[in-house]
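Q: My labmate handed me this sequence with no annotations at all. I'd like to see what the chain might look like in three dimensions before we decide whether it's worth expressing. Could you predict it?
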Amino acid sequence: MATIHHRYATVRGQRLFYREAGPVDAPTVVLLHGFPTSSFMFRNLIPLLADRYHVIAPDHLGFGLSDAPSVEEFDYTFDALADLTAQLLEQIGVTRYAMYVQDYGAPVGWRLALADPTAVTAIITQNGNGYEAGFAEEFWKPVRVYWQEQTPQTEAAIRHALTLEVTRWQYLHGVPDESLVSPDTWQHDFALLSRPGNDLVQLALFADYGGNPPLYPKLHAYLRDSRVPLLAVWGRNDEIFRPEGALAFADDAPGAEIVLLDGGHFLLESHLDAAASAIRGFLKRSLSSPVDGWKGN
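A: Here is what I predict for the chain of 297 residues:
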């Protein structure tokens, strides 16, 4: 069993939490979590990768065990989250890495790749959207309205996403056997969402999410030009980011591998073994040989 270290680093005055495992001289894989969770979502995947790879899984500011300054103290945008992540990686000496992105991790990861294309060795997107085709309209309709205008009325619809009911739904929708998903997941996330002031943090990021679709053409050009290896491993029953979003990567990423599994948004909770098998196979095919002196298998 891999040894997992639980660490903190101070970046731009903010204390960021991250999990680290695996040989430090092995190829690095950075795991970027989504809403409303944290690096906690990778707790079971990390040991399945850390025998061969150096794994880093940070908590975004405002999530998990990282600092969560108020919206008066920090301007929460995806640009800011990506900048903090880039500085964290620089501080701990990570200059080249494969990335795994899920949900909010995708707009953070896309910004990292666009800012420094040569740093990214491979991309795994697990229900991490990069195409208009991926948006499930029923879910996103009230969010799109909120992008246009933040009023008490539009905010009320968005606040529903911060409830225990919707947090639970995100974990269970599309999962054929709900007994595979531990209630610890949504209880853990809801407890952190419920911290004083965190509702305003999440509302700020919901509003800023509207700036992500305009970046998609740049993302698509990057995928075409860089020819970075890409795996889309996706829960085909996701009603937040639909499987069409996974299939669309094949339009721009040469040789993209698309794996659709019979699960939902948080695929690692119900289909860990299948997802990990696809990820390990992809990384083995895609990454260059380990650095000299590393004896991993």
